[in-house]
Design brief:
about 325 residues; alpha+beta; 8 helices; about 20% strand
């Protein structure tokens, strides 16, 4: 199977396709822009560049070969290595390496790899179907001035001193009535019917003096305290039952935000080194026979989801997902 055709097909759905040790084809989105004439907008489109600094193997071609041809990972790696060696040899001989519907690679006089993309109409990834838009200027429509009405200011009315005095007196009277109604201590009309607290206390003392206790004091204390203690215990148990909560099971799983999944451990470590340089706390996790490279680790799925959304907002074209273990 021709690897060049595989690269063309992968660029339709992938943002990156790497040629290990050489570089990577990178697909980018260009929004609509205003041309220098100030009247025409270019249509949005996908463009492809070749990044010579991105030389690690993202295994896109190898995985494609495994799925389409049904071969093993080692066989796919061998086919890719043979293609890489032949491409390097052609570039070293100053030959132009052509990739159909993508572009061509060639070394310049200084030994730098130069990528020349094909025209937009031949590019496999530029399939928006939009043409340049020419903006037509609008005609100047005369505006009718709005009518403004001038309203004469009326002199402010003066308030007489008598009205001010009557207002203050009325406010004080209303305040006094509210105090008499809502403050119990000022209810003077109820004081005559109630007996004085001193007299009632004196009567109680007189009756208690005439009655002698017939039982032992210690027995009285226990007889009084026992029902009180029982009522307190029952009330405490009721409160505890009212506010009892079932213990929530602890989620001991760890949630990783995954940046890439590889068959080869070396490729996973290459991506891990790049993420470490960018400041991520990354690690390589072996799962299902593959090596996953994480960008962050969390103890709750909610926090991992928030970080996943944040990364997608920063890099909408990169593929991230969550692995729970």
């Amino acid at each position: 199977m021709d690897v060049k055709k595989i690269i063309r097909e992968l660029l339709v759905s992938n943002n990156y396709v790497s040629l290990p040790t050489i570089g990577s084809f990178v697909q980018r989105y260009e929004p609509a822009r205003l041309k220098p004439d100030g009247k025409t907008f270019t249509a949005p489109k996908q463009v492809i560049i070749f990044d010579t600094s991105r030389t690690f193997n993202d295994e896109a071609i190898e995985l494609y070969l495994c799925e389409k041809l049904g071969i093993s990972a080692n066989k796919a790696k061998e086919l890719l290595n043979n293609f890489i060696e032949s491409t390097k040899e052609e570039l070293s001989n100053s030959q132009e390496v052509l990739f159909e519907n993508v572009g061509s690679l060639k070394k310049d006089s200084e030994g730098t790899i130069v990528f020349s993309p094909v025209p937009d109409e031949e590019l496999s990834a530029s399939t928006f179907g939009l043409a340049d838009i020419e903006a037509t200027p609008t005609k100047n429509i005369p505006t009718i001035p709005k009518r403004t009405e001038v309203i004469a200011a009326q002199p402010a009315k003066k308030i007489s001193k008598k009205k001010v005095v009557f207002g203050i007196v009325g406010f004080v009277a209303i305040l006094a009535i509210l105090c008499l109604v809502f403050i119990p201590e000022l209810h003077f009309w109820n004081n005559t019917s109630k007996p004085s607290p001193m007299a009632s206390n004196k009567a109680v003392l007189d009756t208690t003096k005439s009655i002698e206790p017939s039982i032992d004091s210690t027995q009285t204390d226990t007889a009084i305290l026992d029902p009180m203690e029982k009522s307190i215990d029952s009330q405490t148990q009721k409160k505890q039952a009212l506010f009892y909560e079932e213990p929530k099971p602890q989620d001991n799983k760890a949630y990783y935000v995954i940046a890439g999944s590889f068959i080869s451990l070396d490729n996973a470590k290459n991506l891990q080194a790049i993420l470490l340089q960018k400041g991520f706390k990354t690690e390589v996790i072996e799962s299902d026979g593959k090596y996953r490279v994480s960008m962050a680790k969390f103890n709750s799925k909610e926090r991992a989801t928030d970080e996943l959304i944040r990364l997608h907002q920063l890099n909408p074209k990169d593929s991230y997902w969550i692995l729970g273990q």
